[in-house]
Predict the structure.
Amino acid sequence: MQSIQSYINDNKERFLNELIELLKIPSISADSAYKGDVLKTADLIKISLEKAGCDHVEICETDGYPIVYGEKITDKNLPTVLVYGHYDVQPPDPLDLWNSPPFEPIIKKTELHPDGAIYARGACDDKGQMYMHVKAMEYMTSNNELPCNVKFMIEGEEEVGSVNLSKFVKANREKLKNDVILISDTGMIAKDVPSITTGLRGLSYVEVEVTGPNRDLHSGLYGGAVANPINVLTKMIASLHDENNHITIPGFYDKVENLSDGERSEMAKAPFSLEAYKKSLDIDAVYGEEGYTTNERNSIRPTLDVNGIWGGYTGEGAKTVIASKAYAKISMRLVPHQDWEEITKLFKDHFESMAPKGVKVKVKPHHGGQGYVTPIDSVGYKAASKAYEQTFGKTPIPQRSGGSIPIVSLFEEELNSKTILMGFGLDSDAIHSPNEHFGIWNYLKGIETIPWFYKHFTELSS
């Protein structure tokens, strides 16, 4: 399989151009105005899987956006790998913070990426990382190097909760039957420090609404006499954390897993520079729950964050008004054993109970998912470790991630399969943020590494 490096070198420009064409399509699942673009992306993924060597590819309709399913079954006696990814992307807002248009991909060289990085929404999350698997498949089929069976399940609703994928999985257990699930929607510690994600946080996402008077009011005539929904909302949000940045919702921590000192010591061995971390974010201090390090706060501890807040007048100039309504979107990242539906109910009951007289408070749950931890003694993990050793020349470090892929826990429940998270992104890739990008080196390294996973997984499974 050493010829994969020369295959990548020979096809590098085509691999980049194909990804760029994919990144040009604004497949924003959260905004119905982009429905046509999301569907167009699904069609392009279908064509790409066919060209990559899948014998059967279909677009599976759902109540929302479709799932692209493909397979290459070489021998039913061989192991089967199910590759999961998503073709939808986050909204690009705020647009004025992008240095180049989010759906006009450009390649720029940086200090971290001397070979260049592709700047575009979805470059890393998840079009670039998903497409690595398509190109790895192309190499294996065109060079007769595919050692096992492969199935692809690429969805278009990951960024909005994967509600219809859950239904699809439950209805297609036999179709999706596999020996391991492979996902690249995470990252690694550094370009020279490969890592395998062994844990994901769960998620609860809600929207809150505070209503005061039946119309917007003149702030001079009514100010001080009527509850201001924006003032009330900000006070309520502020009360969700105490002076130690501990979440104050009753029962919130009841099922939180507390890692042992030994486990925390192992986590601390991962290379990390607090000064470099602060410098990369242009901040002079870190912030978070008292008693935990930065890497613990963003991985093994639950969090609560406001993702958006609005109300009243936000246009140019001044308008002296007390708004009738105020809103906020709030997400809670959860750790294993915290049930997202239970946490959502705890939040709703607590937040609505805090409403002072003079306003009405409503909590609207959006979506969520469970956390996940995968063992490091499984065949899949060992195969992934060997694959990284093959291409990076060093053993990858197991690492828990602060992100969420809600569908992963459902995969294990419904398909009885372990998931291996082989990510090639970096923390600096600005996913979900303006100027998202993905290093060309990382993209090509993923294409090079993935085929080795198939080889080692097949050998270790025999």
Summary: Residues 440-461 form the longest helix (22 residues). The mean pLDDT is 96. The radius of gyration is 23 Å.
